[in-house]
Design goal:
Elements (H helix, E strand, L loop, with lengths): L2 H31 L7 E4 H19 L2 E5 L5 E4 L1 H17 L6 E10 L2 E8 L31 H11 L3 E7 L3 E9 L7
Parallel strand pairs: 2-4
Antiparallel strand pairs: 1-3, 4-5, 5-7, 6-7
Helix pairs in contact: 1-4, 2-3, 3-4
The chain binds adenosine-5'-diphosphate (ADP).
Adenosine-5'-diphosphate binds next to helix 3 and helix 4.
Length: 194
């Protein structure tokens, strides 16, 4: 490839990355403000969690990270399928990204009571320091050790906006060099802010 073709290709790649970032920022703002109307679909949340795990199986395998999924047969839930898929993808993607080869990532879905579903995404990776932990959900915040990894620091902001738009939330617990656990709680039939 000639020098100019190479430059053009990397400019196009950079533009794509910027466009992606702008679209994600827009999505976060719209989701937080309620401009983005969420659909109220009858979902089998357990199926959705299993599908998300299956989707990431090849990535985990490539990295030699063992991915396990523990979800009940069915879990009835009302919400926006695409948004929930996006939230799960962001968390599972991070868990694999920040876990070294040979370690494990486990996803589980349980029901706290009749009304609440709890999804945990637990990794045994690099962990997050107590200084960074309160800031990881902020837009563009990236911990120092992540700067060499791909990403712009918007994934968790969007994931939390989606959980909150479903009247739920996400909290993170972590120990540096031991791993992190992200816990998503979602009311099974939320009064959707839409
Ligand atoms: P990024 O695109 O950088 O992954 P996110 O918003 O998804 O952006 O995450 C923000 C920051 O939080 C990351 O840059 C990383 O430093 C930290 N982080 C998120 N998930 C994990 C995890 N599972 N283990 C360790 N650090 C994490």
């Amino acid at each position: 490839m000639g020098e100019y073709e190479g430059m053009a290709a990397s400019t196009i790649e950079e533009c794509d990355r910027l466009l992606d970032m702008i679209n994600t920022m827009l999505m976060i703002s719209k989701t937080e403000s309620g401009v983005n109307k969420l659909s109220r679909e009858e979902i089998d949340l357990a199926g959705l969690v299993r599908e998300a795990c299956e989707l990431f199986e090849p990535t985990a395998e490539d990295k030699k990270v063992s991915l396990s999924c523990d979800a009940p047969t069915r879990s009835h839930f009302i919400g926006d399928t695409r948004m929930i898929q996006r939230m799960l993808s962001n968390l599972i993607d991070n868990a694999i990204k920040y876990t070294p080869s040979g370690r494990t990532v486990s996803i589980s879905l349980s029901e706290n009571n009749e009304r609440e579903a709890v999804i945990t995404v637990k990794d045994t990776g690099v962990g997050i320091s107590p200084i960074d932990l309160p800031r990881i959900f902020e837009r563009f915040y990236r911990c120092d050790q992540s700067r060499s990894k791909p990403g712009v620091g918007l994934g968790l902001s969007l994931a939390r906006a989606i959980a909150r738009a479903h009247s739920g939330d996400i909290v993170a617990m972590s120990t540096l060099n031991q791993g992190s656990t992200f816990t998503i709680t979602l009311p099974k039939s939320p009064p959707l802010r839409a």
